[in-house]
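Appendix B. One record, verbatim.
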Amino acid sequence: MIFRRVCPAAAVLALAVSSSSLPFAPTSAFASSASAAAPAAPPAGGTAWSVQRGADALRDTGVTGVAVRVDTPRGTVRAVSGVRSLEDRRPVPQDGPLRLGSTTKTFVATVVLQLVGEGRLSLDQTVEELLPGVVSGNGNDGRTVTVRDLLRHTSGLSDYVQDVFPDPSARTYFAHRWTSYRPDELVALAMRHQPGFPAGSGWAYSNTNYVLAAMIVEKVTGRTWQQQVHDRILRPLGLRDTTAEVTTPFLPDPHTTNHQQFAPDGPMVDTTIPYRPFDSGADGSMTGTARDLNRFFAALAGGRLLAPAELAALRDTVEVPGGGDHPAGTRDGLGVFLTPLSCGGAYLGHGGSGFGYVVRAATTTDGRRSVTVSAHSRSADPRTAERQEQALSELVDKALCRTT
């Protein structure tokens, strides 16, 4: 679950679940054929040229399909590169439906902060106060973990994903992709492990945090997190192509096929159907479009969804340790990451990933310029993954730094 989840090979699993690593992309043999099937568009100058160039650069690292959308006060720029699928090799559709992965977390955090603003919840309340007995055992103590700790990953709680995908292989994916767990069952899996550190004393990305956050939303409101996201965010903003109520494992057309490589020398596998053990909850189950994501992040940064006090709390960040899968200097707030821009300042964003895809959504801190990038394959080769992460990060940075 750029912010997202990670998958295949031990490294791949670490990647399919984390918040911003990028192990996606096919082999070099496919990279050359993808380039031939979708030649780069001629330079058009200005932002359009920069965005298309960035999309092609990401494709050239071996990603099967790439789509980019940039929204600014001066208009919208789109770029696609690569192919829609390895079978039919049609062009990647613009603004097609996407799996949002861990970008779901930003929607959930926004709902929690709205409840804080309404006085129905406090960021300093503990999990034990709100969900008695749920976080306990093996050194886990809900009396020490606050709502704030959950939203910015300072809880120290184990990430349940390691329990639902212990063997990073295509065989495991196909054997268990229809298995589902209740939220309390996922938390119980995490409670089998000792915490990584005392709550509030460190940082580590854990999907378990947002499973608990959603349970708290339901406890406080009497309604599901999906209903709250719809009523408080999707409907007011007119995000008609985004849903939290996922009723089918299939994406509507026209969508781009997601491809996962489970071993460095293995084939690319169609993984467009999600892996339900970690693609069905508040930590990563939503679907939507780049248009809607850009509108959401622009509204969030622009103060349309949160009052000033809650928006300030969202931007109150902690350091993200270096050497991981986040760009250097990234800090974590409540449901968003703050990442430095090469042109000065920083951007707010979050990303999502699962088997075969990575989505990254970001906006300038004033919400005036937003970008969403989707990459529709993931490699199990660490060196390839690193090149792809660099290309994706550069694309986001350039898209948000442009002044035209």
